[in-house]
Description:
By secondary structure, this protein is of the alpha+beta class. It is built from five helices and four strands, in the order βββαααααβ. The chain has a four-stranded mixed beta sheet. β1 and β2 form a beta hairpin. The chain is flat, with a radius of gyration of 16 Å.
Amino acid sequence: xxxxxxxxxxxxxxxxxxxxxxxxxSLGYYARYLAGRADRFLKLYIRRFRCRRCRKTVxxxxxxxxxxxxxRNRVITLFVADTPSRQTVRWTDILRRYWRRFCSWHKNLLAxxxxxxxxxxxxxxxxxxxxxxxxxxxxxxxxxxxxVGDLQVTFFGQYRCHQPNLAQPASR
Length: 172
């Protein structure tokens, strides 16, 4: 059953905090919500793991969700692409806040990318960086999952306690 997918999730092979292999054990689950269609919300159960070595936790998010964000990746993508839909109109105020957060974070993101890749992407402004990352990774969802999985950053900040659930498909 899809509703019980959180029970079948395996821990990441490496702790994102201390980088030790095979030290994560199941800690439990927490519930969070994502904006769905119309005025409905999706209730998700997020699996958490704790590292035996450093004692820090990591949560596995579904591929279509952002850490600490209510809106799904697909709707964020529509908003940034300036493609109006019922969902982007419904969530305009929140989506604008997400965009402002990205604009204030983008220089830090460029610095993180530069430190890890040897040089930063050729993006002179926030929108150019957003589109460059989408093009490089093949879409916002793939870019987001890669950034979280490889660098523990998102388009909106640094969140070391979240990891993408790599058992899920790359796109929705």
